[in-house]
Design a protein that fits this description.
This protein has 13 helices and 8 strands. It is α/β, with parallel strands linked by helices. A hairpin with a 2-residue loop joins β2 and β3. The radius of gyration is 19 Å and the shape is globular. It starts with a strand and ends in a 9-residue tail after the last helix. This is CRAL-TRIO domain-containing protein.
């Protein structure tokens, strides 16, 4: 398995005979169903342009104020800083979308996560970078993102990474400041150790996110009520028997969008001279 490029120079990873990971940067203007969805769910109409721009400006200010105050997670959003998390396959962008056209981000927070190699802030940074890259796709902006997080054999060593400070930071980052449509957060293999961890996060969750978090334990059939089995790998009880994407290849794929991460890193509030 290796990184390849199409005739236009766009990177892709060929996973199986009919499956590949490739960003779709095309607009959906000629897709009547997408246009309808944008109009009805996102209110993307000419009449609300000015209102939407004001809201966008407010969101951008919020993000960059957050970024300025939380540099230990949001600074230097680069492939170099997140490469180990990608190579260890802790954060993965699955090659297939779900049945509603949503991108699926899979985070391994159990036995695969070696805290000595990847700290919790680095895991948050890697997840944020993956979201930012996925949001280059107009269809992902429209349909949103599905999250699946596995806590298989989560240990006490991992639990101590989740201090209340970091819990609030990661929830605020995703819940308030990241410009994405989070459709569902599907949690699998949630053990007793996980239950202790979740008690740290719960006070910081808003009403909307509380409604979108689903606990499936080891019941993959429960997961498939939200994401069809034919959209998921065998490790999640799915029917896709294609090999898992090699972590180093995933890191190389993300690196092709380093230009976008650098561009976003260059924006923000100027620091006052002391």
């Amino acid at each position: 398995m290796s990184l390849k490029f199409d005739d236009q120079g766009a990177p892709f990873i060929e996973v199986g005979p009919d499956v590949c990971l490739k960003l779709d940067l095309s607009e959906y203007d000629d897709d009547a169903e997408c246009v309808r969805k944008a109009r009805e769910e996102l209110r993307e109409t000419p009449e609300v342009v000015q209102e939407s721009l004001r809201e966008l400006r407010s969101l951008l200010k919020g993000w960059y104020k957050f970024k300025a105050n939380k540099k230990f997670v949001t600074d230097d959003m680069s492939t170099n800083r997140i490469r180990v998390a990608l190579e260890e396959k802790i954060v993965q962008l699955l090659p297939t979308r779900d049945q509603h056209g949503r991108r699926i981000i899979f985070v391994e927070m159990g036995s695969k996560w070696d805290c000595s190699k990847v700290s919790y802030p680095e895991l948050v940074r890697a997840t944020q970078a993956m979201i930012i890259i996925a949001l280059l796709e107009p269809r992902t902006q429209l349909h949103g993102i599905q999250f699946v997080a596995s806590f298989d054999r989560m240990s006490l060593a991992q639990l101590v990474q989740f201090t209340p400070k970091f819990a609030k930071l990661s929830v605020d980052c995703s819940q308030k400041y990241t410009p994405m449509r989070t459709k569902e957060l599907n949690l699998v293999h949630n053990s007793e150790v996980f239950n202790v961890m979740f008690k740290i996060f719960k006070p910081f969750l808003g009403q909307k996110w509380n409604k979108r978090i689903h606990f499936h334990g080891n019941d993959m059939n429960a997961l498939h009520k939200y994401i069809d089995a034919d959209c998921l790998p065998i490790s999640l009880g799915g029917t896709l028997d294609d090999p898992e994407i090699d972590g180093k290849v995933m890191a190389d794929f993300v690196e092709q969008y380093e230009w976008h991460l650098k561009k976003l890193n260059s924006y923000g509030y100027k620091e006052e001279e002391k």
